[in-house]
Design goal:
Blueprint lengths: L1 H12 L32 E4 L2 E11 L7 E3 L6 H6 L9 E3 L3 E8 L10 E10 L2 E9 L5 H13 L3 E4 L6 H12 L7 E4 H13 L4 H9 L12 H9 L3 H37 L1 H4 L7 H10 L3 H13 L3 H13 L3 H9 L6 H14 L3 H16 L11 H17 L1
C-alpha cells in the first residue's frame, strides 16, 4: 500500500490529477517535488544514461580445456519433434562459445502481460575461456528507452542467444517493450535450455526450475538468495524511494542483481553439462540422473541408433522398466523378434504395462492364448489394487477387456 501511495504522490507532483480535481485551482494545492535523479547505484556500477547503470563482472567460471572453444548446437534440437513432423534430423552444426549471449531479464511481473517491463538484464559471454557477465539496470521508468537500447546492442555483439524459458517469457517481453519504445530489434538465433532440461530430467527430478537444476544437476544450492516472486515488489519500492529510502532498499537490490547474475552463470554451466551428456550419453546418463528413455529416443531420432539402443539396453538391465517397454516396442516395430522376446521375458510382471506387453508377446509371437490370458488377468489385478501408482492411459482397461474377450474366444474354439 505504501508503494501505491508513493506512486500517486509522484504522479501528482508531475501535474497528473484525478478527473474529479479538474477545474479546481491547482496553484493553491501544495506540490511535493519529484525525487532527484540518482547519480549512483551500487559500488562497481557506472551510469551510462538517464536512470540507467551497468557493470561487468568476472564469475570465476571457465571453459574446460578439452572443449576446443565450440559445442554442437544440435544437441539442443528437438529431433523427435522433427521426426514427428516428417522432417529429417537436423544435421550436426558447431558453434563457437564466443558467439553466445547467455541472457536473462528481471521484470516487474512474472506473467509477461502488457504492463510488465524489464528493469534488469544480464548478458553472459565467454572471452577466451573466461565467463563474464554484463548487467544493465534502470532505477525508474523513464530509463526504459536507454536501458533497452543498451541491452539490444549488447546482445547484437553475440547474436546467438541462450535462455532459460526465454522462448515463452524473456524474448517476447523484450520485443514488446522495444516496439513500444521505438527500439529496433534484430533477428536473434535462440537456444532455450529449458526445453532440453525437461526432456532429460523432468521424469527423474520433477521440478525443472533453474534452482532445482542447480541443486539436482550442478550440485550447488543458493544461500541467502532473494525469492524470484519478491523481485518485482522490491524494484517498485526502490524506484519510488527517495535518497533516504535508498539506504534501506539498496542492500535488497544488491541481492536482486546477484540473483540475476547467478541465474546466467548457472545457465551457462547447464548448457555445458547438457552438451557433455549428449556428446557421451552412454558413459554419463546414469551419473547425471538423466531419464534414459527420453535421451535414447532423442538419440535415435537424430540418427544415432546404436547409441540409442545401447542406452535403452543399459537402462533396462539396471531395472528401468520404462526403458524395457520402449525397447520392446522398437524391436517389435523393427520385426527383430528374437531381441523383442529377450526384452519381454526380462520385464517385471508387477507393472501393468509389462503384463500387457507379455500378453501381446504370448498371443502373437508364441501363439499361446492361455499364457496371454494369464498376463491380461494379472494386469487387471494390478489395475484394481490400491497400491497402483503407475500412470495408466485412459483406454488401457477397455483395451484389456477386449483382449481378454478375444483370448477367451480363442481358447473356446
Amino acid at each position: 500500500m505504501s508503494t501505491i501511495k508513493g506512486r500517486l504522490s509522484r504522479l501528482k507532483a508531475l501535474g497528473l490529477v484525478k478527473a474529479s480535481e479538474i477545474g479546481t485551482d491547482m496553484n493553491d494545492r501544495p506540490r511535493k517535488p519529484a525525487p532527484a535523479e540518482r547519480e549512483t547505484f551500487l559500488p562497481g556500477w557506472d551510469k551510462i544514461a538517464s536512470h540507467t547503470f551497468t557493470r561487468t563482472l568476472e564469475t570465476g567460471f571457465t571453459l574446460d580445456g578439452d572443449r576446443k572453444g565450440r559445442f554442437e548446437s544440435t544437441h539442443f534440437s528437438n529431433q523427435r519433434l522433427r521426426r514427428k513432423k516428417g522432417l529429417d534430423p537436423e544435421p550436426a552444426a558447431f558453434l563457437p562459445f564466443d558467439q553466445l549471449s547467455f541472457f536473462d531479464l528481471e521484470t516487474t511481473g512474472l506473467s509477461g502481460g502488457t504492463g510488465t517491463i524489464a528493469f534488469l538484464a544480464a548478458v553472459g559471454f565467454f572471452e577466451g575461456v573466461d565467463f563474464l557477465i554484463t548487467q544493465v539496470f534502470m532505477d525508474d521508468f523513464p530509463g526504459e528507452p536507454p536501458f533497452l537500447d543498451f541491452t539490444i546492442n549488447l546482445l547484437a555483439q553475440r547474436p546467438q542467444l541462450v535462455t532459460y524459458n526465454g522462448a515463452a517469457f524473456d524474448l517476447p517481453l523484450l520485443r514488446t517493450r522495444c516496439i513500444m519504445n521505438g527500439v529496433q530489434v534484430p533477428e536473434f538465433r535462440h537456444i532455450d535450455v529449458l526445453q532440453s532440461t525437461r526432456r532429460l530430467w523432468r521424469r527423474t527430478l520433477g521440478s525443472c526450475s533453474l534452482q532445482a537444476m542447480e541443486a539436482g544437476v550442478l550440485g550447488e544450492g543458493r544461500e541467502d538468495d532473494i525469492p524470484g516472486f519478491l523481485i518485482p515488489r522490491l524494484w517498485l519500492e526502490y524506484s519510488g524511494s527517495s535518497a533516504e529510502g535508498d539506504r534501506d532498499s539498496l542492500p535488497l537490490m544488491a541481492k536482486v542483481v546477484d540473483h540475476n547474475a547467478l541465474d546466467v552463470k548457472s545457465l551457462a554451466r547447464l548448457l555445458l553439462r547438457i552438451d557433455g551428456i549428449m556428446e557421451e550419453p552412454l558413459s554419463r546418463w546414469a551419473g547425471e540422473k538423466v531419464y534414459a528413455t527420453h535421451l535414447s529416443l532423442e538419440l535415435i531420432a537424430a540418427g544415432r541408433l546404436e547409441e540409442g539402443f545401447a542406452l535403452l539396453e543399459d537402462a533396462g538391465a539396471s531395472g528401468d522398466e520404462g526403458a524395457l517397454w520402449t525397447l520392446a516396442r522398437l524391436y517389435r516395430r523393427a520385426k527383430e523378434f528374437d531381441a523383442y522376446a529377450r526384452v519381454v521375458e526380462a520385464m517385471d510382471d508387477h507393472f501393468v504395462e509389462s503384463c500387457v506387453e507379455k500378453a501381446k508377446y504370448h498371443e502373437h509371437l508364441r501363439r499361446d492364448p492361455a499364457a496371454a490370458l494369464a498376463c491380461a488377468e494379472k494386469a487387471f489385478g494390478i489395475l484394481g489394487s490400491a497400491g497402483q501408482t503407475l500412470d495408466v492411459s485412459i483406454g488401457i482397461k477397455e483395451a484389456l477387456e477386449r483382449r481378454k474377450a478375444r483370448l477367451i474366444s480363442k481358447l473356446g474354439e
